[in-house]
Amino acid sequence: MGETYGLLSLLPIAVVVITAIITKKVIEPLILGTVVGAILLYGFSFFPNWVGDLLATMSDPDVVWTMVIPALFGILIAMFGQSNAGTAFRELAIKYVKNKQNSLLATYIFGIIIFMDEYMNALLIGGTMRNLTDKFKVPREVLAYVTNSTGTPVSVLLPFSSWAVFLMGLYGSSELLDGDGFTTYLSTIPFMVYPMITLIIVLLFIFRKVPMTKYVKEAVARAEKGNLFPEGSGPDTEGFEDELEENSGNTKKPRLINFVLPIIVLVAGTIMFDMDLIIGVILAIVTCFILYRLNGTMTYSELFDTSVKGIQDMVELIVLIIAIFLLVRVNENLGTIEYVITSVEPLITPLLLPGITLLVVAFLGFTTGNYWGTMGIVLPIILPLTQMSDVNTSLVLGAMVSGGVFGSHVCFFGDAVTLTSASTQVSNMSQIRVSFPYALAGLILSFFIFLGLGLIV
To answer: pTM of the entire structure?
Structure first.
């Protein structure tokens, strides 16, 4: 079927990429791409067939699993927020933090601990640590950089996070990958070069072992004079203030056990039940219910209301997941993979494939803000090229994920940047002016490392 549609099989992907660049949106371009694909496939009867493909996608076991996990994580994230559990860590840190570097180091460590979801990381870390870093005159945009550049790399390097869940589902749905999504994901972790380099760069940045850019020097000098906010930023400049004020006004007693125990149960439960992440998250949620009632943190009504809100907060993510998998189905029906293989086979250079994958995904993530969508689009294209070139699949997938993480860091209209800017109360561009030079340096270094790995792996 792919040979029949030829060059037209690339049209849905082109529509998604171009529309995303123009509109700076994610879900709508993906849906539009699936509609365009349905028109190519079914002609004037595209709509009922598009609905049929949508229902078939939503009933696919791998897709259902990937939809359920974010909903469960949403409940857990909401529980932590409503119980004020994260504040307990800040109160503990205040007892030991004595200077500016240590306050950023505490933020870095806290970011590693809050690894389950980048949204939770962005809002919780910035919102709880800003009072601590303010005490030592840390510029808010520097706090934003450390927060955002720690959260996503940690989330993607640990197989118990929303990033991991999405990628496991994506891998599990591919007929070109052997084994289950979890096993495939684990095999790619050693090759997630950019996230590892980013964590190292952030740590070096904290201890001033890498040069400060001109903008960072100016920000530090400004903060030393008592002005923590860059021009155009401040407590009332971002659109998420209502949510942040609600969190900051939480009067519930912070208890460290309210965070630590559910996380231990999440990890231990997942491992004990044959790495079943659904069981692990459910056990963590049950732990929250029991623990928060026993210590009087939340009432039954608050627990159930918080659970519903947590699911609601993940609805957009679930819709995004459905749209991505529907586009994958459309591309398979159009024969996109076969066409790409036939077209680029004479041009394939096995040595460059991991590095090129990194750069392509990084560029698309940066220009569209669609990091997960980009990976969903790229995966069915790079897998045949990888297998045909006899390149290590885990290496190429690690490069793909690395590119996605870069996009998450530097897309000024992306979710991760926006939420981090909101929690630290700076503009998105102020954060990017700090983070982009270091992220770009990490990307360039990662590219050359992937070239080297291509020779030895």
So the answer is: 0.72
